[in-house]
């Protein structure tokens, strides 16, 4: 540690003052010990002066040289300290840059790790969602297959039961028809041709109706198939459009991320350039300040340096605390953003799963509707086949009945011939037979009328059954049209639902993207604000350091100026005291010594002699040493005796002049004739 300036300046002065005090005390002690003796007249004292001027000049030169060397040492030390301070600041700047780079690398690694974690979590969630969807699809498929098997079994049972009921009904109708045919055998021959024509007409009408129904069914199936193909094509187009949209969105996101990275790199580069410029400016300012601070006082510089180091340590601690707080705040914001992103991803996954479940349920409902429509078509086809078989059986029965009627007619014709022969043979029974025949004819007419009425009732029943079958066919056709309309409506609803789901998904993605962008923008703003705050804090610290440096320089300049003025004042006072002391010696000391100087008889005289005298504050002599050029001891002793005899000397009232006389030896120079 360097020695304080006031100690280094005060040490020579203290030593000089102590030496002067000791000399004055010795001089006063020796001066008091001398007694006054009457002496003969003394030779004339040629000159009396104060302390040796050459020694004083040499001492002043030595002091000035020592002061110059001390100033040079101070300048060198200041230059070394300025160089060390500059190197320390450069090292600190390098350390801060390395710290910033390390923090940036750490943040980048943390960001990449977080992105990898997020991607991994999203991948796990997507796989879990796919697995859940696959399980749901398998369960739905199993349920659908089970329901389909149950439905087919139920339909098979119902078809078997219906077939049995139809066979039973046909058997009953056939038995009834045979009984009716047996009852109305005779009356039905007349109406056989009309019935055959009506049957032919009905068959033609039924054939035309079946053909029209088959044509309508074919057209409906073709239209349904076309609608299904159109819906599939639309769905594929929507899927392709969604894929293209997702690809475009991913591309846009990648371009936005790349653009953001380029902007961040450019901003970091600009910031690094600005930091480099600021550091260069600070280094230049510090270099100039170091050059200007070479002439500062060492004590003040050391004290201010200690205070600056303490403040720097406090500022460093506060900066670290603020950096730690910023880091914690950024970490908390990042954690909140990650949690928000995870929640949004989970909500999106749930929405996707719900949409997938809805799509699956809609597909399942659609498949069930198609299966039911297919079952209805199959039932209609089976019913149609049964009706055709029944018609065939009815035609066969009608042909059989006609054959039997023709055989019966032949038998009736034979019987009539026999009857005619019998009538010819038994003419007398003709009247009775005619009467019987008339009665029989009347009965036959009545039976024919009854049979005709019964036939009409059966015909009406058949027409009613045909009308009912027609109504049922029309109802089935209407049901098919309604089912087709419902299927189309359901398809439209499904398409609208898919569109709404796609729109909701797009909106959710847009909202998620907006939230992500907002979070990134907030994070970027927070980083920018933190950087601006740090930059402002750095500028403030630099300004504070500059201001403190200027204050230290000003204080040092003031102290140096005050010290210089004090030195000038002391030098002027010293010169004035020396002049006054010389005048006091010439006016008060010299006459007393002249009056008491007695030259010894053995003294040879000649030459010059100088006596060094030290005084006490009271004017006493502590020591007197004579030094003559000729080396005459008697002459030297006479000179010393004159000084002791003249004591005590009157001291000047001015303390500075008295101090000048006491601070150094007073010399008397004798040069007798």
TrEMBL record:
Q: Which cellular component terms (GO) are annotated to the entry?
A: membrane
Q: Which GO terms describe its biological process?
A: bacteriocin transport
Which segment of the chain is annotated as a signal peptide?
A: none
Mark out the compositionally biased spans (Basic and acidic residues): 85-102, 134-411, 418-446, 453-481, 488-575
Q: Where in the cell is it found?
A: Membrane
The GO terms describing molecular function are: toxin transmembrane transporter activity
Question: Where does the record place the region Disordered?
Answer: 79-113, 134-587
InterPro entries in alphabetical order: Tol-Pal_TolA (IPR014161), TonB/TolA_C (IPR006260)
The alphabetical list of record keywords is: Membrane, Transmembrane, Transmembrane helix
What is the membrane topology noted in the UniProt record heading this document?
Single-pass membrane protein
Q: What is this protein called?
A: TolA protein
**Native source species:** Methylomagnum ishizawai
